[in-house]
Amino acid sequence: xxxxxxxxxxxxxxxxxxxxxxxxxxxxxxxxxxxxxxxxxxxxxxxxxxxxxxxxxxxxxxxxxxxxxxxxxxxxxxxxxxxxxxxxxxxxxxxxxxxxxxxxxxxxxxxxxxxxxxxxxxxxxxxxxxxxxxxxxxxxxxxxxxxxxxxxxxxxxxxxxxxxxxxxxxxxxxxxxxxxxxxxxxxxxxxxxxxxxxxxxxxxxxxxxxxxxxxxxxxxxxxxxxxxxxxxxxxxxxxxxxxxxxxxxxxxxxxxxxxxxxxxxxxxxxxxxxxxx
Length: 277
What we know:
- The chain is of the alpha+beta class.
- It has helices spanning 19-28, 32-36, 61-74, 83-93, 138-143, 182-195, 212-227, 239-243, 251-273, and strands at residues 42-45, 77-81, 98-112, 125-135, 147-148, 150-152, 156-157, 159-164, 167-172.
- The strands form two sheets. The chain has a five-stranded mixed sheet with strand order 1-2-9-8-5, with helices on both faces.
- Strand 6 (150-152) and strand 7 form a beta hairpin.
- It starts with 18 loop residues before the first helix and ends with a helix.
- The relative contact order is 0.13.
């Protein structure tokens, strides 16, 4: 609409990356110090693959905490996704993530649990992708004053919020920002790791993501991967056949949520600019 949105990209330097990734971020992303010197209405912190047994042992933890502490004093609202959610609630309220019995991966129906400006215009039930090994229990969130805005019977809590000092912290355990083929790429990566012996867990097929025909194709491939586990078998992963019929059923509600978030930022900006008499 009439909003002018200026988007800036920042990186956390201690995060381990490939040579290609470091070069790409060096050219197109700014550093953490530059972020902390800016005046921004809001920030979005995405997730990363967990590497350490505890979040506080991740190489970027100290930088992550600096940004969290800055955001609660200097933004109108901050959005956290997946692993960033688990880091935020641990730092702010001491809530520990819990390991899941298996990876939660797929596109799951979410039910609106509470009316809120962020969920305005959303249907009562909408879908969101999830891809994570850990989760935070709803009871612990409730005990610390978080408001749950959406939840899933299978995936648990999805979106929840809490005001932290000057900023409304918005948390997504899922990934409304995922592109159409992101889950396919993540599943393919996990299958490659299994076949190369880098992981002992053969990945489960993402729920609610593929149609029946694609699931049949993957079921056969997965069965053969377990039976004849070898790196060479990965070359036959049926990426093209699986990709052609994937439908993005979460983009529309995701756009609505982020539109609502931008409108919230605008309203807070207007409110803060009013003269004080």
